[in-house]
Amino acid sequence: MNRPGPRLLSVKRAYHLxxxxxxxxxxxxxxxxxxxxxxxxxxxxxLPKPGQSLNLDSLATNDKAxxxxxxxxxxxxxxxxxxxxxxDFLMHEPAGPASSWAANAQAGDxxxxxxxxxxxxxxxxxxWFLFAGDMSAxxxxxxxxxxxxxxxxxxxxxxxxxxxxxxxxxKPANLEVIWLINPTPQTPNDTLFxxxxxxxxxxxxxxxxxxxxxxxxxxxxxxxxxxxxxxxRLYASGYWQIGMTEDIHQEEKRKETDTDN
Length: 261
Ligand SMILES: Cc1cc2nc3c(=O)[nH]c(=O)nc-3n(C[C@H](O)[C@H](O)[C@H](O)COP(=O)(O)OP(=O)(O)OC[C@H]3O[C@@H](n4cnc5c(N)ncnc54)[C@H](O)[C@@H]3O)c2cc1C
Prior knowledge:
Elongation Factor Tu (Ef-tu), domain 3
């Protein structure tokens, strides 16, 4: 499927899902070709640079200087009947253009939206599942848990900033959720990795889906490969990096991929 062109959307409503997670519901008249069942897919949020106004020309431009600010987010839900696109934004510190925009988002505000890409579903051809991630990955993990078969088993290790950030999840009964509290995710830490290492390995083929801070995910990816998780059943992605804005982080990821080739 070709990626649809960028759209100009407006905020329908916004509210806090938990102290550090703000839900923004976007809408627009131009959602007829918006794909169904793409929850967990990522998209590009397009924000105006200072002094810039957003319109379809500025969203589509190839001119680097006049391109909007681009940040990557996850499609949490899409409701065609209500014309609603749901996105959950972590309110991280230090904030950046996207988290600041979401913190202040009010009905009627406009924003650019490019995508969504392909959904990031866990490979369900597996005997058990392991999800691990921080709050940046919580929207995609929550969407994944909702679509697992009722008899699915395994673990979801979820790192959140405070106890009150534990949100209700729709999940199979035998999928154990392990919440970890880390109030300072911007300090290098092994919170997620240490817990993943302590999990009791289940029998059969496991499928793993892990995302979050790049340094943590690199360690976990290496560990899961060593434990024999087949690469067809492994999704591991660094969603952000300590001390780097998304532009710099994506540039670093490109360099690493180039070096790997
Ligand atoms: C495929 C994909 C899907 C994603 N989906 C979501 C999603 O649904 N919801 C969501 O909230 N995020 C999501 N993210 C992460 C999000 O893109 C980054 O957090 C992004 O940096 C936010 O942009 P910003 O403008 O707020 O901050 P930036 O300007 O990019 O960064 C400013 C500062 O904030 C720090 N920072 C960035 N992210 C975090 C964080 N998670 N925790 C602590 N500090 C941070 C940076 O290191 C930097 O110092 C996703 C990322 C990817 C690659």
